[in-house]
Design goal:
The complex is a heterodimer of chains A (113) and B (137).
Chain A lengths: L2 H8 L2 E4 L10 E4 L3 H4 L7 E4 L4 H9 L4 E4 L7 H9 L3 E4 L4 H10 L3 E2 L2
Helix pairs in contact in A: 3-4
Chain B lengths: L1 E6 L9 H12 L4 H20 L4 E7 L3 E8 L7 H4 L9 H5 L7 H8 L2 E7 L3 E9 L2
Antiparallel strand pairs in B: 1-2, 2-3, 3-5, 4-5
Helix pairs in contact in B: 1-2, 2-5
């Protein structure tokens, strides 16, 4: 599915990367634990409620391009700046992690494992 | 090519800057992206450890044509039982470290998975040194 479809499914807003919403993604991973994110092999999308600069750094190191923040979390200006340097897309969703993942799964986004 | 960075205890705002800088250098050198990922994930884990668990330290990186060697040396408190710390799920992280999304006891095991050579030495009251090497081919 495209990032645009993800945004529509989640009633989300785009904090960074509006011009990249036609990007196609197949899999996602959801976690608030960055230690787990660093063990992933390949996935472009992270769903998380952890909203701090280390979320961006971790995704940079783990080669994740798209972060979906849940529970109404908004990235700070510092986070957006760092994400912009690394060509990321930041999406903000008002729903809980459980609801966001449920909706994305129902819409066809696959789990990593 | 030699690079050196200082990391400060508890400075989570800047945690990962050294790893990020190394990533940019390796990209410029056209190193295989999969290899870059292994290098920076391992280095980032070690860098975060020095900030989260220790009193800061230094990150030294030497890049040759065929490999990268990384040494993260912290200023203590040291690890009493390295074998215990190498097992997944074993952690002594403080609550504020866990609040940052770390401290799951995955750091050292994940370094081991991503590098070709890992050597951890530690002396309680003095510090811990993590030496890692990754071959480019």
């Amino acid at each position: 599915m495209t990032l645009k479809e993800i945004v529509d499914t989640l009633g989300a807003t785009v904090a960074l990367g509006q011009e990249r919403l036609d990007m196609e993604v197949e899999h996602a991973f959801a976690s608030d634990l960055m230690s787990d994110v660093l063990t992933l092999k390949d996935t472009p999308v992270l769903v998380t409620g952890l909203c701090n600069v280390q979320t961006i750094r971790t995704c940079d190191m783990a080669t994740l391009d798209v972060i979906i923040f849940v529970r109404g979390k908004k990235p700070t200006d510092d986070m957006v700046e760092l994400a912009e340097e690394n060509d990321m897309v930041l999406i903000c969703c008002p729903y809980s992690m459980f609801k966001a993942c449920g909706l994305l799964y129902q819409a066809g986004l696959k789990p990593l494992y | 090519m030699h690079q050196e960075y200082t990391v400060v205890e508890g400075d989570f705002v800047n945690a990962g800057k050294a790893s990020s800088s190394v990533k940019k250098t390796l990209k410029q050198l056209n190193v295989n992206p999969q290899v870059i990922k292994r290098v920076v994930v391992a280095l980032y884990e070690a860098e975060v450890n020095a900030i989260a668990h220790a009193y800061g330290g230094t990150v030294s990186v030497d890049i040759d044509a065929d490999k990268i060697r990384m040494v993260v040396a912290d200023k203590g408190p040291g690890i009493p039982d390295i074998a215990w710390a190498m097992e997944e799920g074993h952690s002594t992280a403080r609550p504020e470290v866990r609040d940052m999304g770390f401290g799951a006891g995955m750091g050292l095991p994940n370094m081991q998975k991503n590098v070709d050579h890992l050597n951890v030495t530690s002396e309680v009251g003095v510090g811990t040194t993590v030496e890692m090497e990754v071959k480019f081919v």
